[in-house]
Every structure is written in C-alpha cells, then in structure tokens.
C-alpha cells in the first residue's frame, strides 16, 4: 500500500515545474519493515545511481541532494547550540540543492523549537533565501506500531485496509501526540499536521514475509556460487522452517521486523556455504590440474571440470545447517 502511494506521489510532484509546496511524506511503522530502505532506494532512483556500483557514496557526493537528519532529541544543555547548527546546515543544504530528498528520522521526537522551525520552513516558502517547494521531505517514525498492528488484526488481511483508513488513524495519532505536548495553539498544530501530504503505513511484517526473505537471501547466495562457477545451490522447506523458527515472533508478527534475517543467515548459513565454496574451489583446481597432465588443454577446452551442485540441509541433531553434494541426498 505505502510503496504504491509513494511512487505515484513522487512522480506527480516531479512532474510540476514549479510546485507550490514540498511533498511531505510521513512514514510510520515498527523497526525493520523497510522505511529507511525506501528512502535510500528513492535516492538512488532520483539521482540516477546504481546501488551495486563500486564505491557508491549515497548518502554522500553521489547523491548530493539526499540528506538524512538523525538524533534530533537533544539534552537541555546542548539544545540551543544544536538547533542553531542544524538550522544553518539545513538552510545551506536546501540553497545548494533545492530539489532535495530530505529525511527526518524519529521526527515525532522533535522538540517545540525545532518543530516550529520546520513548520515555518514548510508553511511559508522562502526562509533565509531557501525554499523547500521542490523538495521531497520524508518524516520517518516508529510511532504508530500499536495502531497499525490493531488495524491489521481487525481487518484480518492488509489487502482489506483502505489507504484513507490508515491515513486517518496515523494522522489522528500524530495530532493527538503533538497537541498533548502543548508546543503551540491547537490551530497551529492542525496546520502542522495538515502540511503532511501523505501519512503512510509500513505494516508489521508477518511470518510469511520472513520466509520469503530467507528464500531471497538463499537465492542470492546461490547466485554468488553460480557466478563463481562453483555450482548450483539447492535447499528444501526444512531449511526455511529451521531459520524462521529462530526469529522472535509475537503471534504471527516478527518483533524486530526483518532485522533478524541477516543475523540468522550469518549465524547459520554463512559458514557452511563458505566451507562448501572452498571445497568446490579445491576440487575444481584438482580437476584442472589433472586435465592439464592428461593433455586436456590442447583441445581448446580450459574448464578442466564442473562444480557439483550443493544442497543446504538441516544437519543431524537439528542444531545447525550443512551443505552436501546434491546427489548424495537423492
């Protein structure tokens, strides 16, 4: 739901030669569901950068308009100095890159002075010779996890939730939160909330999504083996079951979203796959050496051997994974 709305909103905003206001997207959801990955991929697309390019600096010089603001919750002693420095840096960035992709992480933690500054920047157009009208502003927050979780449980299926329903839930939540903080008059709080173009839900992942992610990661590892001419990689459902069972769930929802997938792949799959790759390399080297001794290089063929397919499976005892030649398990 969120990604479809985001892509359409960005395309419509970019189609305007002189937009009257910035596109402001408020992303909500628990950790590990793809909010940060979204704006990184958006930066690659907006600045025409290939994510797999060696040495890509994005954020950085290769995506000069892409700026992510972290850690906006300051202690009282450092607040004034940090506000001044942040305000100066932000205005300088917008002056040099008016078509910015500006991300404010954990924006719900903005204190009253910083929220007032952002309201001024979003509402009044030019500030200190800088304007955000051509910019895309992403407000990112973990706030709303409980509301989205309950909404998903009530609907029974995320496909049954209308975008307007999710927007209303998130908008009301942010308004109530800001109003309770008492930073400004109620009418100003309403204006600030009204400046957000879209409130977008990143719903909690479900068990089936975690299984799909493990399948994708194993497919990536298999492609790496094949690209290195080290044979194909196979696995069965028991491997996906084994990895998925290691994830912490609350009901059908992973507590940390997708964050545990990479950790568990490293913990259980990386070592057996590296050992298998090393064994394949040694076997191929031996085959090539034997082919040379037998005169196999004279006929124009230099392969010297073919790597066997490997099959990842749950080892005996059920505590780890191992890789064996696929033919040994047939």
TrEMBL record:
Ranges of compositional bias, category Gly residues: 293-303
InterPro entries named in the record: P-loop_NTPase, Torsin
Stretch list, region Disordered: 287-308
Sequence intervals crossing the membrane: none
Cellular component GO terms held in the UniProt record: cytoplasm
UniProt GO molecular function: ATP binding; ATP hydrolysis activity
Superkingdom assignment: Eukaryota
Family: Belongs to the ClpA/ClpB family. Torsin subfamily.
Official protein name in the record: ATPase of the AAA+ superfamily (ISS)
Organism annotation: Chlorella sorokiniana
